[in-house]
Amino acid sequence: MAKPLYRLPRLKLMRLTDLPKDEILDPSWVADYQTKYDALWQQVTFLVNRMYINGKVSEFPIDLFCPPHRSTFLREVFFTFYQAALMCIWRIAVDTGRDFLTIRGLKNQIAANIRKDGPHDHSELKEAFLDLVRASDFEQVVGAAEESVRDLRHSYLAHLRTARVDGTDPRTSAPLPVARLEKLTEAITRQMTVLGFGLERPYLLPEYNDRIRQPVGRRGEPDIDRLLTHVVADSEIIYWPEKSPQGWKFRRPGLSEEELSWFNHYREKLGLPRA
């Protein structure tokens, strides 16, 4: 998930970024705007970090290194964070309750509070903001997924809809795989850049964010990477080339190219030769 933030059209974005908030917005509303923007930023930070961890867990070849009876913890972490991320997306991007703070709601409030009596033309300011809104793909991405988000929220997460109790496990039959949640998360961060008039605040925690410089000796691997390396170090198969050469001779051809790449990736991390 640590991908570069989407870049919006720079000319109008730079113009709005260079202006004080009280020259863009009604001065009497700036404090309220900042409070609401900060609250949404905290929610997006919650979302982005859970998606970062889940991205690591979902790409980890759990079936290669963990027998079923030793993979429960990682699978439960994944499902728990998946549900937490989905509920956060519901809260800030899909919910339409009038009493709730959402990205769409703040967007509409900004448009309604563009300053009319300031040093800049009201129509130009509003059009510049709306151009940024149109240039982002928030509505397209969220609109394509919101029915699935709503269904999962109403049927399994916040409620248990009787009509959907059919014996299937929503954790394995969910219509929103991690890749789609990642696209939703990226669309949300892009829209937050619009709502911040070009401000790109970091969402990833410092330990996970390569763009944040750490004190000397503090950088190192993120905790989730260290945890997954420990899982591999505790597995049996990673040592097969040395401990069971005959078994490895028959096991190796059965690995896919991707599995073998992961296998040697962790062999090297553990100071072992490629196999």
Summarize the structure.
This is HEPN AbiU2-like domain-containing protein. This protein has 14 helices and no strands.
Explain what the structure shows.
With 275 residues, this protein is mainly alpha-helical. The protein has two domains: 10-206, no CATH class; 223-269, no CATH class. Helices cover 62% and strands 0% of the residues. It is built from 14 helices and no strands. Helix 3 runs antiparallel to helix 6 (103-112), helix 5 (72-94) crosses helix 8 and helix 5 runs parallel beside helix 10. The radius of gyration is 23 Å and the shape is elongated. The two termini are 30 Å apart. Mean pLDDT is 89; it is low at 1-11.
How many H/I helical runs?
14
General form: elongated
The helix/strand series, from N terminus to C terminus, equals HHHHHHHHHHHHHH
Low-confidence segments? 1-11
The secondary structure category is mainly alpha
Helix content: 55-70%
Distance linking N and C termini: 30 Å
Number of strands: 0
The radius of gyration over CA amounts to 23 Å
Mean pLDDT: 89
- Range of strand content: under 5%
Largest sheet: none
How many discrete domains? 2
Protein name: HEPN AbiU2-like domain-containing protein
List keywords for this structure.
disordered N terminus, elongated, 2 domains, mainly alpha, 275 residues
Topology:
Elements: H1 10-18, H2 21-24, H3 30-59, H4 62-65, H5 72-94, H6 103-112, H7 122-135, H8 138-157, H9 170-173, H10 178-195, H11 223-233, H12 240-243, H13 245-251, H14 257-269
Organism: Longibacter salinarum
Protein name: HEPN AbiU2-like domain-containing protein
